[in-house]
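In response to reviewer comment 3 from the previous cycle, which asked for concrete evidence that the modeling workflow produces usable outputs, we include below a single protein chain processed end to end. The sequence was submitted unchanged, and the resulting structure tokens are shown without manual editing.
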Amino acid sequence: MYPISPSFAQYLQNPNSIVIAKVDINDKTYTDVHIVDFSIENSLTQGDDLELGTVTLSRLVLNLRTKDDLPPNAKVVPYIGLDYSLLPWQEADFPWQDADFSWTGVAGDWLPMGEFYIDNRTKVKDVLQVECFDKLVWANAPYLSGLTYPATMRAVWDEICQQLDYVYDNSVVINSGFMVPVAPVGYSIRQVMGFIASANAACVYAGKDGRIKFKRFAATEQPVINITGSDYTSVKQTNPLRTFTRVVVTYDDEDDLSFEAGEGSDATTLFITNPLATQQMTDHIYAAINGVSYLPITMDAIGFPQIEPGDLIGYGVYDGTAWIDADIPWTDYHVPWDGISHYQSYLLRVSFGYKGGIKMSAESPARSDQQSEFMVEGELEGQIKRLTQSAVRQGKLYYGLTISKEAGLQIDRSDGKARAVFNADELTFYKGTDKALWFDVDNERYKFSGTIEAGEVIGTKITGGTINGTNISGSTITGNTINGGSINGTTISGAAIYGGVISGPLIQTGSSFPRIEMNSSGNLLTASLNNSESIAISPNLSGSPTILWNSGGSIAGLLTYTQGYGTWIRSMKENILVSAAKRIDLSPGGGFNINIPSWSRFYNETNGRTLQQEINDIYAAIAAMGS
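The workflow returned the following structure tokens.
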């Protein structure tokens, strides 16, 4: 039950109380002037019995006089308050410290009725009707986990709340020893929250303050409020007293495998489906639920807006009978002297309606003993049940594999990091939600968004931005970037090639001239103008590294160093020309000479004379002067 002040609680039960309301929509407040009416439906059960592990949505339908354009999914928070302005002094029997209302009589407290979000809307004239659901609606999405499994249920719960920005209160108590062995692939967030809740003997709901809560059930639980005959207009018992003494938890509904604890018939058994269950969890549930008892009823009453779904209430029913009509043996007549019998019920469904006042309708549904005990299975029904358990069906999870009309064959990895989809239009492997490897039907191409690692890749042609590998072999490899420890092949073409070692018979800048090439034949690095004119670097020519000039298909000159002889520049066919803009310096080290065959080999290019001729003429002139 939502906490309220004693004065608020007392005045709610006063027949002269005046209930008022307001609604906040995206931080704008609408009062009774704008509110036509609203209704709120809360529930902890989806069927006709008490259940564990339910995650049900609360629903708000609001009729509002406004011309405002409310944004999509706007947050809507209705409030209930009290107007004390007409309360007579003789009825204001509140302790002074609890009379927390102002002198004007305006409500001191505003009781929130939940946080809702607009789902759809209709408008008739000036009245806007909006249908809203609480924040658990966001849990209707596939659960994708980033955790490492096995993981604790607490870690899974916290991850979900972080993903959806949920805040939960201290009613959420999760056994620290309960584990999730593998990622629950193929389930929605809402289902996973329910599995965790049922393992901890609880249901999940969004409270009036918007926080996520657990509702637990226990045999020792006491009523949160006692409702008297003057507080309700009608109460009706719908089935006999419901008491639980046994728990059966099905963890594999395909093969009908389950754990159980306790003893009793189907009428006293709580049935749960939880694929994460263990015997330890089943024993934990049984310890909590054993002996839980309630009377199934329907009730219409004045508004108790502080009541939350799952609250245990006490109420009295007048069972008195005139003595003349009491034809029951005295020893069997167990009616109190005042004629009022007292009962307890869990309000599993609670609805509130506001229209200038607040009213409440509540239900405590339960299966009858006949529904529980007399379930006769015919031959045809048995065959259908067995077929249902063994047949592959759409939307059913088989160890990660599901078949559906939308996706065809889909296989999900247990940790949610990968899945595969196979159908007539799509052949795809996913990494998380992104495509990793797929067949592009329209372009007739297989595509891969990751990195290919292999000992050897063999193919006619490989085209791509980056190719990494220990050994890549093929006739042609074309791409923007090729990275690898070793790349072997006849031809490698690309804008950039990066790697520790590139090995092959021929590596060249292009197939046409001019070009530079590295050739394994002779281990030559060659710059070629055409087929006959080139310069080559040889690592070994007669025992020395050498630069070779080739012309006409043969060696025309060379530059080499020979140990014991020095550096050689040699021309085989033409002249060796040395030209400089200013001078040519020949600077041998100390003790070394510049050797030439003969001065007659030094020519003056201007007059065609040799240095020997010039020396001879100088000598003749000097000799003549001496004579």
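Residues 372-378 have pLDDT under 50 and may be disordered. We consider this sufficient to address the reviewer's concern, and the full set will be provided in the supplementary archive.
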